[in-house]
Predict the structure.
Amino acid sequence: MNVSGLESSEFLPFAFAFLIGLSMLLYAILDGYDLGVGILSQSVGQEDRDRMIASIGPFWDANETWLVLGVGLLLVAFPVAHGIVLGALYLPVSLMILALVFRGVAFDFRKKAEPRFRPLWDRVFWMSSVVVALCQGYMLGRFVMGFEKGLYPQAFAVSFGMLVVAGYVLMGSTWLVLKTDGELQKLAIRWSRIAIWVMVMGAILSSMSAVFADTRIYDRMLAFPELTLLIVMPVVSVILTLLMHFLCGVLPLPDDKLSWMPFAIAVCIFVLGFVGLVYSFYPFIIPGKLQIVDAAAAPASLMVILAGAVLVLPFLIGYTMVAYYVFRGKARDLSYD
């Protein structure tokens, strides 16, 4: 009995860390593309803007569910870590939530308000999308640095915020390649070709600065066999980047062939980046400060929470799959009926 209890106490914290990581990854991918579309929305005229927003209309609100799930699991499974994170990031979290509220309001008001106010709500939708992306990147940068104080950690967090904006623009532009056609699709292809290089160059600079700013990351990534991972992941990322670049040079193809591929490549790049990020601070849940096993709630509490998570996850995944199946194909005209 004691052995079983010991095994569960060791397994449960890592199971919840995995679920939190999975939720955050799915959020970054799913809400990332619709935030990217919002960031790009001011780059086109009204008709194309309506088509862009129509492409995310059925999905954008539900995509945020994964953020709620990840933060909720962090709160109940790792309350100490949750307190540290919220204490260090109180202001950017508040700003992000405020921007999310304004984004939701602007999404509806841009069509339902009087015509003279429509440009205002379009700008609010664009600006709130930018602020949400910047805040999320800034918070992730602060997290990677272990919430260290000083000018350099702050500068790194700000640069990481801009990197996340570039990443979301890549996701949004490749989503538009998949969901639109005609001149808007061609424009989205050009955006994708630019965004992939901006994101990759930003990721390289951020990775180098993080390694030399934090000796813990340096020691972990340059030790054997970790060095193998350090080599393989950038090589795969470069291959995917080149594939994206050349693919965008030949798209669109007849019958819209391969229009799904840029988005798939962007997802793979996000997954690789996420895996590398997690590996750099594992087994810490607060990098350099608090380990997963030390921050976890009591095993009995975790068992109850796990039962709830196992019950809820199939519904979230099932709903997401059904929604994307029902609204597959090219985006139709925007409707608020």
Summary: The first strand starts at residue 284 and ends at 286. Residues 1-6 have pLDDT under 50 and may be disordered.
